[in-house]
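User: Is it possible to get a 3D structure for a protein together with its bound compound? The compound here is LLP. I've pasted both below.
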Amino acid sequence: MNKNISYKQDQLFVEDVAVSEITNSLRTPFYVYSRTVIEENFGRFKRSLEGLDSMICYSVKANSNLSVLETIAKLGGGADVVSLGEYKRALIAGIDPRKIVFSGVGKQDFEIAEILKSSLLQFNIESVSELEMINKIASSLNKEAPIAFRVNPDIDAGTHENISTGKADNKFGIPISDAVEIYQYASKLEKIKIVGIDVHIGSQISDLNAFRQTFEHLEKLIYELKNINIELENIDIGGGLGIKYTDDDLEPDLQEYGGLVKRILGNLSCRIIFEPGRYIVGNSGILVTKVLHSKMSQNKSFLVTDAGMNDFSRTALYGATHRLIPLSKKKRGEEVYDVVGPVCETTDTFLKNYLVEKAEEGDFFAFLDVGAYGAVLSSEYNTRPLVPEVMIYKKRFEIVRTRPTYDEIFDKEAIPTWE
Ligand code: LLP
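Assistant: Yes, that's possible. Here is the predicted structure of the complex:
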């Protein structure tokens, strides 16, 4: 566990705040983020790139709360966004638009137009159709669009199939074998300004070999482009670095990752853009939940928590394991449980046969390492309001997203007025 999320006299603290202090005034479930952990992760990432002309464009999709983005902005980070909504969030939080890359396989015309009218570092383009669409919009606005192509290197990142993106049968990018031809075509389009190249092979990657092969493919392609006088300013190598959720996970060595980038791509006179998401925020967050019931079936003990798969879906979606720990160690001994949520789905199961401190109704617990792809993936399934988010910094905590009231939820809907 991170030193900023740890026990002091049997009470779970995030930085200098006892989490139980928050449960006194805020109904569970809720997310808590440590700003210091985010700062430290960002700092460590940056230090591993020392000596490299680099820019860290935090991948907003991992956790887009404004408080997180503002933390990134203060650290000098940029953003990787995939929608106009994320772009707007980044600006509100104070991120410099010249440090924003706009990624995504299905950008829409209104998004492209609004972002182009403002400013950005580059569009990461994923198809010829998108290239033509951007050129058309840029022409109508009489603006030049800075672009990079996301190439699909056909590499297996060795990660869960639902989060792999760099294989030929994934929907992402243009085939690397077609890249030279497509760059040549783009260079002839009037309002297109080629500035870079982009790749992202997947997420939660622990095998640095997949990165190495990808960087080598990129290097080769960049030389081929140089040969036809297409010079790039930016090499965007995406995100994807994995973190350690359980003892079974391997953690890639950050220094080694930085070393690979420097060795293979560091001498091409380009700026290297990184899009880390999970690495920056993953271990900064916990999800605080209350035990609603402890119950027995024929052969199992269940803990039913007030957090469900609608609040945190990584387990249901990817079979992910997130550890559960008590907010307050009661020292009643341990028991093996299946930890389940209250949602009416069998996949609303967080942990199976999990050994944890014996629990009673009303006890508070925390799921660990939920800072990335936690709150952002939540929904109001079963009409359960989106859960609040809290940020802690040293001795202070602040609610950075409130729970909507039921009326706020219903106000967005209407019963048709026809007879
Ligand atoms: N850049 C692009 C273009 C991406 O698609 C992603 C993540 C990232 C950067 C950031 O990747 P990271 O550094 O966080 O691995 N919901 C899944 C993960 C989906 C990742 C989607 N793309 C999960 O919870 O595991």
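The mean pLDDT is 96. Residues 244 and 251 are 5 Å apart (CA to CA).
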